[in-house]
Structure prediction request, 616 residues.
Amino acid sequence: MGSIKVENVDFSYAERQILYDISLEANAGEVVGILGQNGCGKTTLLKCINRSLKTNSGDVLLDGENVGEMSRKNIAKKIAFVTQTTNITFAFTVFETVMMGRYACAGDEGNTNEKDLRAVYEAMKDTETLKFADRYINELSGGERKRVMIARALAQEPEILLLDEPTLHLDINHQFDLLELVRKLAREKNLLIMIVTHDLVFASRYCDRVMIIKDGKLHHLGSTKDIMIPDNIEETFYIETEVSEDSRFGINILLIGKSKNNSDDK
Amino acid sequence: MAELNSFEDLREFEETSRRKTVVIVSSVAALAVSTFICAMMVGNYHLSISQVFGVLFGTIHDGTMEYIIFEVRLPRLLCCFIVGAALSLSGLVMQSLFKNPMASPSVLGISSGAAFGASLALAFGVGGFMGSLMVPGMAFIFCFLTMGVVYMLARTKYGVASNTLLLAGVAMGAFFNGLVSLLQYVVNDDVLSSIVYWTMGSLNGCGWSSFALAIAPLAIGMIIVFILIKELNLISAGEEQAANMGVNVVNVRIILIIATALMVGGSVAISGVIGFVGLIVPHIFRMIVGPNHKLLVPLCIVGGGIFMIVMDTIAKSMFSIILPVGVLTSLIGAPFFIYVMRTRKKEIWE
Prediction:
C-alpha cells in the first residue's frame, strides 16, 4: 500500500488563497517530484497531504482513507514528513532524536523494544548517522542534521515519505547519496516518495514523475520525460535549458541561463 | 565513545544510556532520603540521627520527640518536598512546552493570579463560607481562572500559538500584579503585612492539613506529566515536527497546562508564591543531564524537593529570625544558578 489521492484541494491562509483545485494520484514505489517557483504552494501541498494544514475544500485520501478523519498517530504510522527546518530547540543526542521517530509505532506498546531499535539502526545506517549517535544535535553541521532528520523519518517506517527540499544544506556528495537512497527506498521497500525540490537536474534524474505548480495551480503532471522539456521549464522558471536523453541517467538537463523571452519580473 | 558499527553496538549504547538513567535517578533519590533525614534533625529542638530513627521506627517512646517528628517536622518536610517538586516540574514543563528558557510557573500569569486570589481573601476577611480554606482556596481558584482566561485570550481560529500564549500570560501576570499592588495600597497595615508575607512565600505553619490539601492536585499533575513524557520530548524538539510524528500537539498542550495549573495552584495554596525554584531547578538538571524528559522529570521532582527542603532548613535555622523561604530561594538560588551556567559548557538552547 502507500497511495495518495488528492481530490480538488483548495487551501488559503486567511484571505490569501495558496492552492487552487489541485488533484493528483501517486502510488507505492514511485518518486514524485514537486517543482515550482518560491511561494507557489509546494510545501503547502505537502502539509495538506499529511494534514498539518486543513484544506478549505477537497479531500486527501491515504490508501483510500480520508486524512481529515484520521488521528495524528495513524497518519504518522503511514506518512513521514521531513520539513525544511532542521532546528531543534533542545540539544538531544542524535540517537534520542532518531528514536523519536518511533513514537507513533512504539506508543501503544510503551517502552523501546527490539523492533524499535532495529528500525532506528536501519535508518541510521542508511543515512550514515550511526557515527554521530552520541553527539548532541546542535554540534552537527546543517547537512549532518538534515541526515539525522531523514533518519528520524525513516525510523517511522512509513509507507509514504514527504521530503521538503531534502538536499538543502547537503554537500554534493551527500546530495547524491540521499537521492540514491530515495530511489532505493522506492524500489526496494516500495515507498511512495514525494520530493519538493528546486534542483531540476536532480528532479529529472531521480524522479519517476514530476508535477509543476505555478501560482497555486497544477500546471503539469506526468512522467519526468514528458514534463521536463524546455518549454515547460521556461514557462515556469523563466530559464532556458537544453534537455537530452542519456542512456545512463535518463534525462540530462543543461541550464543555459535566464530566458530572453520571459522574466520573473513579469 | 567508540564508533558504532553494528546493531549490537547500538543496543549496547542504548542499554548503557538506560543504566546511566537508573543510576542517576537512584543516586538523587538516595540523596533526597538522606537530606530528608538530616532535615528532621534540625530545628530549635535538635535531635540526633539515632533519635530520629528511634522515633520513626518506634524504638524510642518520648512524647516531645514524637510530637516534633510526627506533628511538626515530618508534615512540614513533606510539604517542602512536594512544593519544591511541583514547582520545579511545572517550570520544566513550561520551558519545554514553550521552548523558552525564561518560562516558569509565573510566566503564564498563574502565580500572579493565585497571589491576587489569596490577597483578596486576606483583604476581605479570612473565614467566610470556606473557613480556614479561604486563602488557599482562593489562590487555587484564581490559578485556574487565570489559566482559562490566558488560554481564551491566546486562542484564534487558527489555534493557539505558544508565543501568543506566553504574551497573554505575561499581560495577565502584569494585570494581577497591579491588582495586588492596588489591594496593598488600600488595606490596613495588618492585612498589608499578611499579603506581603504571603507573596514572599513561606512554609511556616505547614502541617498535615496543608499536606492533605495539596497532595491530590500535585500528585495528579505529576502523574499526568509522567504519562506524557514521550510527548513532552517530541514537543520540546519542535511542535510541527512532533505533529508530523503523530503527537496531537493541541490536546497534549492543554492537558499539560492543566497539569501545571494543578501543581502550581496546589503549591501556591499552601506556601504562597515561592519564586525562582521553577526556573532554576530544571535548568540546572538540563545543563547536567541534557534535555531528555525521561531523566529530567524524575530528577526535577526529586531535585526540586531536595532544593526546597535545604532552603527551608536554612531559612528556619541559620538566622536569628525565621526567613520566608521564598526570599532565600532567590538569594541563594540565583548565584548558584549563575555558577552552574558559567561552569557548564554544554549548549542547551539554540
